[in-house]
Amino acid sequence: MISDIVGWLFAIFIFDPLQAQMQQHVERANLPVEIVRQSQACLASQGPLLIERAAGDYGWAAGTIVNIAIGRTTPADLLDNRDPHCAALVSVLNANSGERV
Q1: For 40-52, what is each residue's pLDDT tens digit?
Q2: SS3 for the chain, per residue?
Q3: How far apart are CA 12 and CA 70, in angstroms?
Q4: Is the pLDDT at 100 greater than 60, yes or no?
Q5: What is the rounded CA–CA span in Å between residue 32 and residue 36?
Q6: Looking at residues 53-81, what average pLDDT do you find?
């Protein structure tokens, strides 16, 4: 039960804003369709993994939420840039790193 709540909080405070930030960058930058597809694939694969990790490791989830809130960590830091789909999204988010979620 607690793990469900932690996962839900993580999704609301981290994953949902990350999706919104990606959508803003896509609209603003008029990115090629392939990068948009790769970014969506990245979020589809990484999102559940991040939420599962948050639900299983409350300390990591709380620390991540705080670090993102204070700007020490960016949402792009949470994505696996070794995943070819995520590399495109990480590049887009890092190119606009002056903007926060």
Answers
A1: 888 888 888 888 8
A2: CHHHHHHHHHHHHHHHHHHHHHHHHHHHHCCCHHHHHHHHHHHHHHHHHHHHHHHHCHHHHHHHHHHHHHCCCCHHHHCCCCCHHHHHHHHHHHHCCCCCC
A3: 17
A4: no
A5: 7
A6: 87
